[in-house]
Amino acid sequence: MRIIRVYLANITLQPDQLVVLDKSIQHRLFRVMRLKPGMTIHVFDGSGHEFLARIVDQKTISVLEPLVSQTESPLHTRLLLGLSRGERMDWAMQKATEMGVSQIQPVITRYCEVKLDDNRLRKRMDHWQGILISACEQSGRTRLPELQPVIALHAALQGSLSDSSGQCRLILDPDGASRVQDISLNRSNSVTLLTGPEGGFSEEEVEAAYQHGFQGIRMGPRILRAETAPIAALAIIQARIGDI
User: Fold this and answer.
1) Which terminus has fewer CB within 10 Å in the chain: N or C?
2) Which of 118, 102, 137 has the alpha carbon at shortest distance from 8?
3) pTM for the predicted model, two decimal places
4) pLDDT on residue 163
């Protein structure tokens, strides 16, 4: 039987608590999914806590007992994701969440084909946040990845140095000296992975990444799309030192 999971934002969940659901959640559960009073669902707060809950009526649920979940990776991974167009960015964020990523930061690079003014940027951030929530609900995760603000690559590189203790920094580079599986990794590391947009990185951007302590890794002889490469790399990293 399929388990219905619902993310509840800005609330501290506890047993015997009555929660009035947002209208968007009400619509999804009762209009789209046709759930009825008395049915049970799982609810989580995005910070690691998950509970069993019972539907009271078409607005309210009653929180029951806490659930033990072991769906979060022991490995902290941060994805610096080159800004791509439309569904490609959506797909990469969705699958990265399924792969257990801890943080995602969209990055503007030289060959980025996406131009966002402040209004469009706010809408995209809200849209991406919704994708992360849906991916957590689907994949069983209890912690919501942190979606960080869109920044320029040079700022992202500087930021990667602010917490370098035990950090492994990797850039996907077709001319990289190593493969992902050849890099020395252990679970005490946190991994920062930098991946480019459709047009890739300029030579200057790759050199700047190397100067900031990134190691170049290649992903085999085939050319991967911008949305495929980070997911393939994350899967290999999780298989080596994560929980796959």
Assistant:
1) N
2) 137
3) 0.93
4) 65
**Parallel, antiparallel, or unpaired for β 178-179 and 215-218?**
parallel
In one letter, which amino acid is 149? P
100 or 243, which is more confident: 100
pLDDT bucket at 166, cuts 50 / 70 / 90: low
- Residue 27 belongs to what domain range? 5-67
For residue range 181-211, list pLDDT tens digits in order: 888 887 767 999 999 999 999 999 999 999 9
Alpha-carbon distance of 209 to 228, in angstroms, equals: 21
Q: Please enumerate in sequence order all residues whose Cβ is within 8 A of that of 176, keeping only pairs 6 or more positions apart, or say none.
A: 215, 216, 217, 218
Query: What does pLDDT average to over the chain?
Result: 93
Contacts of 6 (CB under 8 A, 6+ apart): 21, 25, 29, 41, 42, 43, 44, 137
Residue type for position 185: L
What is the number of other CB atoms lying within 10 angstroms of the CB of residue 219? 20
Q: Which two tokens stand for residue 149?
A: 């603000």
Question: How many domains does the chain fold into?
Answer: 2
In one-letter notation, the amino acid at residue 96 is: A
Tell me the Cα Rg of the chain.
20
- Assess whether 97 and 208 both reside in one domain: yes
Q: Which of 93, 192, 163 is nearest to 134 (CA)?
A: 93
